[in-house]
Specification:
Layout (H helix, E strand, L loop, with lengths): L2 H14 L2 H35 L10 E4 L10 H6 L3 E3 L1 H34 L9 H14 L1
Helix pairs in contact: 2-4
C-alpha cells in the first residue's frame, strides 16, 4: 500500500469514525441554535426592552472623537469620521454589543435550565420494574410443575 492511500484510509477512518462526526453534527446544530437564540433576542426581547424604555436601546451612534483630521468638514457620523481617519472611541457600539451579549446569555441560561429541568423530571419518573431473568422464570415453572 502506498503512503498516499494509507494517508487517505487513515483520514477516512478519522472523519467517519470517532468524535469527528459528533463534532461536525454539534457544530451544525450549534450554528442553527445560535441563529434561533439570536432571533429570540433581536426579534422578541429587544422590542419589549425598547418599548419599556420608551426608545431604542441602540447606542451604536454614540461615540467620542479623540482626534479630528485637519480640515475635516464632513458629517459628524461614526462611519464618516472613521473613514476620514479620525480617532474615535466607539463606546456606544460597545455598550450595545454588551447589552445584546447579556440578553443572549440570559436566553441561553433559561433554555439550559428548562432542558435540565425536563431531564430531571424524566430521570425522576419511576422506572417500570424489570422483568425477572429468564432462568428464574424457568426455575419457577419447574417448581410449579413439581408441586403438582
Amino acid at each position: 500500500m502506498s503512503k498516499a492511500s494509507g494517508f487517505l484510509k487513515e483520514f477516512r477512518d478519522f472523519a467517519v469514525k470517532g468524535n469527528a462526526m459528533d463534532l461536525a453534527v454539534g457544530v451544525i446544530i450549534g450554528a442553527a441554535f445560535g441563529k434561533i437564540v439570536d432571533s429570540v433576542v433581536k426579534d422578541l426581547i429587544m422590542p419589549v426592552v425598547n418599548f419599556i424604555l420608551g426608545g431604542s436601546v441602540d447606542f451604536s451612534n454614540k461615540f467620542l472623537v479623540l482626534s479630528m483630521p485637519d480640515g475635516y468638514t464632513g458629517p459628524m457620523t461614526y462611519a464618516d469620521l472613521t473613514a476620514a481617519g479620525a480617532t474615535v472611541l466607539a463606546w456606544g457600539n460597545f455598550l450595545t454589543i454588551l447589552i445584546n451579549f447579556i440578553l443572549l446569555a440570559l436566553v441561553v441560561f433559561i433554555i439550559v435550565k428548562a432542558v435540565n429541568s425536563a431531564r430531571r423530571k424524566e430521570e425522576a419518573a419511576p422506572a417500570a420494574p424489570a422483568a425477572p431473568p429468564e432462568d428464574l422464570v424457568v426455575l419457577r415453572e419447574i417448581r410449579d410443575l413439581l408441586r403438582k
